[in-house]
Amino acid sequence: MAKIATNTNHVIVKTSLCLLPPLLLAVVFYLHFQTQLSMFSPVCRCAGQPAAVPGAVVDRLRASATFLPLKDTRQGAETWFISTLNATAEPEAEARNLVFPSPASAGRLLCLAAPSRRDGAKNAYAFAWRDALPRGAVLLPGLAFVSETAYDHTNIWHGLTALVPFASWHARSGCRARPVRWALFHQGEVRTEMSGWLATLEEAATGAAVAIETFDAPGEACFEEAVVFRANVAGMNKERMLRAADFMRCKARAYCGVDASSSSKAGGSGEGEGDASAALRVTLLFRAGARAFKDEAAVTRVFEECRRVGGCAVAAAHANNLTFCEQVRLLSSTDVLISAHGAQMTNMLFMDRNSSVMEFYPLGWKQRAGGGQYVYRWMADWTGMRHEGSWWEPVGEPCPDNPDILDCWKERQIGHNETYFAEWAARVFAAAKERKARSAAAEASSGDQRR
Ligand SMILES: *[C@@H]1O[C@H](CO)[C@@H](O)[C@H](O)[C@H]1NC(C)=O
Ligand SMILES: *[C@@H]1O[C@H](CO)[C@@H](O)[C@H](O)[C@H]1NC(C)=O
Ligand SMILES: *[C@@H]1O[C@H](CO)[C@@H](O)[C@H](O)[C@H]1NC(C)=O
Ligand SMILES: *[C@@H]1O[C@H](CO)[C@@H](O)[C@H](O)[C@H]1NC(C)=O
């Protein structure tokens, strides 16, 4: 009797051992199925709890999550962040990303142990099933936007290139995918700041205020859902960029209560205000400090010459004393933006498509700054604006202790050349005015056809 019992026990043990791999597989597929395709439906996980999974199996699954360095130093910059997965674009020509949970992650969540703000190789990631997170790990509910950039989320230009793919992702979800939190990384190092302008733009675009994860709490953090962009806009084509810019422009205007259909009547701030009939709205967006114009009054006078010829309104403003929404409002009613090279130029995003940009640099940039100085030409290209060229200050007092022309001049104030500015403005303004008149006529005639 005892012997039989032992045998039976033996058989049971054997049977359960044989059953373990299929059972494990079943668990894997169950969790996988349960979590995949949930990306764009963040809330609805109400249908049924998972069937009870034997505790021993869960323990094994928990232990199977392996933490690897977030920054894989054997890899190139585009892939060192979570290097064991390939990023993909869906649809093609969008920026490449990683989604958790997803079929590619076998239904697993992304878990991060990220104590370091200095060394990305000291931070780590693992994949784990929702119902078998590593011991001590904390489940962070909702959708996380995880951004790794080789640049900087506090610099408006660089931060914008990191933000665009998320805005596009959100738009493609039918505006349902709203981030509960952001996890920001620079080469795998934790970052906890985003420029205020970007954070407001993000909030306008997704409807969710930016909350940045600090990773200060004890335990690894596992995101209920996460989308990772680790190479800014890499993979995104021009058409997709334009579409994302249109989306952000539209959302920012709505957020700020700017009625785009009446933007031609809204006028700028300051001197442009009230001139509703102006055929052309010109905005001088000044900087304070580095790369400001030496003589703003003289520069303003030159461009105001267009008033004499008629049909133009000139608004002058300092970017630093406008709120985000004041910037959106002003640029929504601007046909030509005149500004010195610098972060405030990112506001071109808010102009109507086909509007014009004129850019100014101190001495030294043209000679030595290389391709990076053209970022606002690129931006004009992917926001659908016309970059009308640049003026580089041609001469200046040398720096006695600094033979490097860029280092010496980079942040200095910018002079002006009345003759050059006036001729350039006349050309740009005339063409812009003509384009505007043509598109207004086209709009009117298509309106007639509809009637
Ligand atoms: C990623 O892509 C490379 C090259 O296309 C391939 O060799 C590698 O196996 C892929 N890795 C994974 C995890 O799919
Ligand atoms: C805006 O800022 C500039 C420079 O920072 C300053 O000179 C100017 O007076 C300010 N204008 C207003 C209206 O506050
Ligand atoms: C922009 O201008 C081009 C021609 O210069 C025109 O074909 C296009 O329709 C314009 N786009 C918009 C949005 O006005
Ligand atoms: C100012 O611009 C005009 C027209 O381009 C040019 O002929 C002149 O040499 C410039 N003056 C200076 C001081 O650079």
List keywords for this structure.
five-stranded parallel beta sheet; alpha/beta; binds 2-acetamido-2-deoxy-beta-D-glucopyranose; disordered N terminus; Rossmann fold
Strand content: 15-25%
**What does the overall shape look like?**
globular
Uncertain spans: 1-20, 30-38, 41-48, 262-276
Quote the average pLDDT.
86
Chain oligomer state? single chain
**Biggest beta sheet summary:** 8 strands, mixed
Q: Please, how many domains?
A: 2
Bound molecules: 2-acetamido-2-deoxy-beta-D-glucopyranose
Residues in helices, as a percent range? 25-40%
User: Got a strand count?
Assistant: 13
Helix-and-strand structural type: alpha/beta
- Terminal Cα span: 96 Å
- Count the helices. How many? 12
- Rg (CA only): 28 Å
What is the element string, with H for helices and E for strands?
HHEEEEEHEEHEHHEHEHEEHHEHH
Keywords: Glycoprotein, Glycosyltransferase, Membrane, Transferase, Transmembrane, Transmembrane helix
Subcellular location: Golgi apparatus membrane
Pfam family, one: Glyco_transf_61
Organism: Panicum virgatum
What does this structure look like?
It is a single chain. By secondary structure, this protein is α/β, with parallel strands linked by helices. It is built from twelve helices and 13 strands. The strands form two sheets. Strands 1, 2, 3, 4, 5, 6, 7 and 8 form an eight-stranded mixed sheet that branches. The chain has a five-stranded parallel sheet with strand order 10-9-11-12-13, with helices on both faces. α7 crosses α12. The structure holds 2-acetamido-2-deoxy-beta-D-glucopyranose (4 copies). Residues 84-86 line the site of one 2-acetamido-2-deoxy-beta-D-glucopyranose. One 2-acetamido-2-deoxy-beta-D-glucopyranose is lined by residues 353-354, 439.
